[in-house]
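User: What would this chain look like folded?
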Amino acid sequence: MSIIQELNSLQNRFRSFYPVVIDIETAGFNPKQDAILEIAMITLFMDEKGWLKKEKPIHFNIEPFQGSNIESEALAFNKIDPFNPLRAAVTEKTALKKIFKVVKNRLKLKKCSKAIVVAHNANFDHNFLMAAAQRTNFKKNPFHPFVTFDTAALSGLVLGQTVLAKACKIAGLNFDNNQAHSALYDTMQTANLFCELVNRWKRLGGWPPSNEKVDTSKVIK
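Assistant: Here's the prediction, encoded as structure tokens.
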């Protein structure tokens, strides 16, 4: 395998980190006390030519945890009825167990060291994910405890927009505002945006490094 092929592998593209796109819909802004209502995740893969692409999404409606706070303003914004029996909601622990299992399998398959949350305004989703993992006593959380890839920041740099809908449109991606603020839809669009940003950098010649001298010591064996 050539040095360029190695650099084009997912294992080497992000310093052995494995990007996982996540969106979480909540009943407020406090990750310690406000309920998680939805969570969706999409894992990614890199093809043989180094183009980043999506895998299939996973989505769960979540039961508010016992004693959690639910802000009426948040429900008015995301239009979620947390107590609707048709939601087929599961507990945080059930959802995280399935999500973590998939992520751990991908880490092993892709020979990566740690999963990284990719999200729009990633600090919000990362904080809620970490709080839920702690609350449900997961000892082996596959996600990095503080590093994230924030598509809002990346979009501000590349596209001059930080709002998800506007960034997608500038990037040439479809965005339906009527479906926004659904964890599944927002995760799909964030994944599309992240892949476009990473692949655009590659199309522009920014990856693999275009300089002639490539430091092979930094390529993970």
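The first strand starts at residue 17 and ends at 26. If you want, I can go into more detail on any region.
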